[in-house]
Amino acid sequence: xxxxxxxxxxxxxxxxxxxxxxxxxxxxxxxxxxxxxxxxxxxxxxxxxxxxxxxxxxxxxxxxxxxxxxxxxxxxxxxxxxxxxxxxxxxxxxxxxxxxxxxxxxxxxxxxxxxxxxxxxxxxxxxxxxxxxxxxxxxxxxxxxxxxxxxxxxxxxxxxxxxxxxxxxxxxxxxxxxxxxxxxxxxxxxxxxxxxxxxxxxxxxxxxxxxxxxxxxxxxxxxxxxxxxxxxxxxxxxxxxxxxxxxxxxxxxxxxxxxxxxxxxxxxxxxxxxxxxxxxxxxxxxxxxxxxxxxxxxxxxxxxxxxxxxxxxxxxxxxxxxxxxxxxxxxxxxxxxxxxxxxxxxxxxxxxxxxxx
Length: 357
Ligand code: F6R
What we know:
Blueprint: H1 8-14, H2 16-26, H3 38-46, E1 49-54, H4 56-73, E2 77-81, H5 82-85, E3 96-102, H6 108-119, E4 124-128, H7 134-138, E5 141-144, H8 157-176, H9 185-200, H10 203-214, E6 219-224, H11 227-243, E7 246-251, E8 268-273, H12 276-291, E9 295-301, E10 311-313, H13 321-339
Parallel strand pairs: 1-2, 1-3, 3-4, 4-5, 6-7, 6-8, 8-9, 9-10
Helix pairs in contact: 2-8, 2-9, 4-8, 4-11, 8-13, 9-13, 10-13, 11-13
Fructose -6-phosphate binds at residues 55-58, 102-104, 107, 110, 154-155, 237, 241, 353-354.
């Protein structure tokens, strides 16, 4: 039930700190150490390459998952859109592990790939919010995201839950390989939960941004570099699906290779700036679009922020930054849709689980 909330989406956004704390408690052993099922640990470690398959928001989580697993567990990962995978199948390594990420566990495009790779004899793990779903039953292993039912069509808490579980999978694999971690994953995820709460308390400021930037616009752009790029893809998807504003996420450096032609006076451009090594270059991209009339909105990280940034996110561990930076984007999308009179929980033409190819 949505209780006092006007929409499930808002409720589900607010539930994210709780979901993260749930995940922490479910994937911890009695000594407070991250621990995955032994069969899953072995399957991950037997793999010489991981292929993540997913659609939509779950695909966006898979992009961040690739970085988490490569950075923490030092295993090569490729992330693929489910609906395209079989048309242009990459060369598969000798000992692959396929990881399917799916909130519903029912997405037909993902299932199509699962059926094909099982036929080829490859092992498969499903990360899902619905254990017992088709993708969970048909894979060899399941990791539960413990998000609780997600009712709003636009996925919010499932996305952050998927990334949290992927980070723990990476940590578990790193430990099994004997790597020394230079951070405490449980502590860092707890900080994420706390920061999520802080962000969920800033609805007024985010509603104002939505009003100022998105009340009347026809289109808008989201830019970021490195892992911020993956998060802006999700920010753009959230906004377009519920507000019907044409929104595109771009790598900061790519906009000028064509799409900058679409920038007009007043076109909103949201830029995410949360990483030191790309802070100046993404701000350079903001200058490029501003010089062509865009109205930029910079969302930055505490410590890397400049004086005029429109919104500043508190710091968390660099690997986990996407779990918190997405929250302002979710809330901006929510308020933009609300102000434009859209049906937030049930956007037109969309279904919660897409069971056709
Ligand atoms: C976006 C959204 C969709 C789903 C996609 C995959 O908010 O909800 O893009 O992420 O249809 O669904 P699952 O994760 O159920 O496989």
